[in-house]
């Protein structure tokens, strides 16, 4: 739902294991939800995050797309191209 501010516990309940933080400088990091406080809200997590590359405080919190694709592959939702036959 738009405008909702989910907590770490909400993400874990959705089956997510990691969350991605994205900085304006382009750095992208994934954080294990099990390492965070379950009551931490997305807005607070983003505000508290500090970039290890540029030192900027505040990051964009996004779903971890690598984990997302892994989950899709696990459920059969994979569209990887088949290797070309040689020759
Ligand atoms: Zn940065």
Number of domains: 1
Bound molecules: zinc ion
Distance between the termini: 51 Å
What is the makeup of the main sheet? 3 strands, antiparallel
Instruction: Characterize the overall form.
Output: flat
Report the structural category: alpha+beta
Low-confidence stretches: none
Helix content: 25-40%
Please trace the helix and strand order, writing H or E for each element.
Answer: HEEHEH
Q: What this model shows, in words?
A:
This protein is of the alpha+beta class. The chain has helices at 8-13, 42-48, 65-74, and strands spanning 18-22, 28-32, 60-63. The protein has one domain (8-74). Helix content is 26%, strand content 16%. Zinc ion (ZN) is lined by residues 23, 25, 27, 51, 53-54, 56.
In a few lines, what is going on in this structure?
The protein has 87 residues and is of the alpha+beta class. It contains 3 helices and 3 strands. It has one domain (8-74).
Task: Describe the secondary structure blueprint for this structure.
Blueprint: H1 8-13, E1 18-22, E2 28-32, H2 42-48, E3 60-63, H3 65-74
Antiparallel strand pairs: 1-2, 1-3
The structure holds zinc ion.
The site of zinc ion has 7 residues, from loops.
Descriptive keywords:
single chain; 87 residues; alpha+beta; 3-stranded antiparallel beta sheet; 3 helices; binds zinc ion
């Amino acid at each position: 739902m738009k405008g909702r501010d989910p907590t770490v516990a909400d993400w874990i309940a959705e089956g997510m294991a990691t969350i991605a933080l994205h900085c304006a400088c382009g750095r992208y990091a994934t954080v294990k939800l099990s390492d965070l406080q379950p009551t931490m809200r997305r807005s607070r997590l983003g505000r508290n995050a500090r970039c290890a590359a540029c030192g900027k405080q505040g990051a964009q919190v996004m779903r971890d797309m690598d984990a997302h694709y892994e989950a899709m592959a696990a459920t059969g939702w994979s569209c990887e191209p088949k290797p070309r036959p040689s020759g």
